[in-house]
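Table S2 (text version). Query chain:
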Amino acid sequence: MLVRVYYALTSRKCRRAVLPVYPCRILCLLLACPAVFLAWQLWPAAFPLQDADVREYAGVASRVSQEWRPGSSRARAHHLVESLRSRPQLSKLTSKKEEEISSTTRKIPASSNSAKNLRKLASPGSVAPMAREQQPAPSKPALSAKLHPAHGRLIREYPFQPVRNERGEFVNVILVRSPFRSRHQKELFDQYKQELLFLGISSFEDYPQPPPNPFSGKFPKDEYVGLFPGFLHMLREPAKIFPETVKLVLMSQSDFSLPPPQPKMATKYDFTFSGSDQDVHNDCVGWSSYAKNWTFVKTALEVMCGELGMTGVLVATKDKQGRRACSIPPSCKGKILQTKFLAQNEFFDYVRQSKFLFVPQVHDASPRVTTQALALDVPLLMNWNLIGGWKYLNDKTGEFFHDIGDFRDSVKRLLRKVEEDEYSPRKWVTTNYGDQVSGTRLRQFVEENFADRVKLPEGTRLLFPSGA
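Corresponding structure-token output:
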């Protein structure tokens, strides 16, 4: 109606007839009409609500009052009305119905905790509050033993190590054996961590802790310890490192793939040491030599060669051409054989011809030569501070030393026990480790802790880390 009046007053015919007589009044009226129309549109009574809507709002009022802490009932009513007005579908609330809702909230006790009383006070007609629509929980896709399509892409990146069963089939478990070496590798993990089971495994330096090796890259100490839902670790006190949410098993790469029994060979050397030829041209100063604890090896050689007159083999302490070698004490001249990097069978032959394997490392997570030597029935002389591999040593497998202070005594004790045939390394290691024992443990660990994350191929009995 106001619109029709406005257009009538502004028509050409009306302006010609009235404007010359009452110009000021007509101009004021023309300016006032839009303002009146706008106020009418915004006033709540312009679009009165139906009774059904009021009952619905009363139910909302009862729920809002239930969430309020004890306070002013007037303030609660005002808060309710303002929240209803802010919704597009509830923007036109009549003043009369506003009073009804306000009085309803005043009747509701501030500390009421009875759902029955709230329903009774919700509306004059005792209509139950409007139930919130329940959103169905997203259903997880059914687990499948079929290999994930991204599996091959992942295992091409170094940190991601595949897992096989006893039939050689890949499974949807990926072991992360080192820190990520690029942003791309971290992005791959983030992309597929909900679709594949990623587990950490100690197989590289001090990982998952930052390495002290000055030639290694560094990362925050908490970056990897809680990143995976489970971890195959080698620590003496894992509870000090990992959060409680991470499932743990004391297991290393060196627990698997033991060499088969081999015939005894005549003893030719007192010991064998497995080194690395990566730093030969820098006189064995570098990343690999630090990991092998070469500085301690040279100190120990002074004792073994100079004081005790022992003989030994230092494997992979010459370059691949066999021309240049890492320097050793002069007292070892004629007593120590230095070789270039050897094939595994050649290395095994030197171990079998020795009384013990010398393991001086500290920052080595999974020294495979330890279990290989034990499987060849050769005991170990091991650094007690070794972070991985300590679990293989006991009174049946060899002797510990802590530093150069007790090194001499440990060497003498080991040599005496070797002469008296007190060790039984092969029997012990094959009873406690190897593919059958460790493969069963890994399969049980996965099934008992991650049955909701991965499905193994039918009939799987054993699981093995695949590759070095």
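Notes on Table S2: The chain has a mean pLDDT of 82. DSSP finds 16 helices and twelve strands in the chain.
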